Amino acid sequence: TVKDENGCEATDEIVITIDEDCGTTTASTDNVQLYPTVIENENQVTLELHSNNIQNVDIQLFGVDGIAKGIRTTHSLDKGDNMLYYNINQNRDLPSGIYLLKIQCEDDKMSCVRRFIIR
Question: Fewest C-beta in 10 Å: which of 26, 61, 63, 95?
Fold first, then answer.
């Protein structure tokens, strides 16, 4: 709820949908694993991805409010199993809370979101 200087109030609702089942022939989201899912002292998370093609993948960190919290990075995927490391804080101290990591393949055939918690 927001109130202006005249006393008028407005309320808006933000809905965030996490699609955990967005499979594709290029890369299956069932083959995207993120760990750890609860972070206390670590500065990075590990992503395990399987790709049927050589391609690039974009990774970006968001808060549950939908606002980008981290720098968008691009990583190269080889055909087969890949292990990527994403630096969460990237020289920023993130407060405790729930965060979303968006993973998007360059050919737009795979996009998924993984959730983790910073304590």
Answer: 95
**Order of strands, sheet of 80-87, starting from the edge strand that comes earlier in the sequence:** 32-35, 44-51, 80-87
81, pLDDT greater than 50: yes
Question: Which residues have a Cβ under 8 Å from the Cβ of 11 and sit 6 or more positions away?
Answer: 1, 2
Can you give the length of the chain in residues? 119
Question: How large is the average pLDDT for residues 87-96?
Answer: 76
Residue 25 has pLDDT above 50, yes or no: no
Q: 109 near 63, Cβ under 8 Å? A: no
> Over 70: is that where the pLDDT of 95 sits?
yes
CA 13 to chain CA centroid, nearest Å: 21
SS3 sequence, the chain?
CEECCCCCEECCCCCCCCCCCCCCCCCCHHHEEEECCEECCCCEEEEEEEECCCEEEEEEEEECCCCECCCCEEEEECCEEEEEEEECCCCCCCCCEEEEEEEEECCCCCEEEEEEEEC
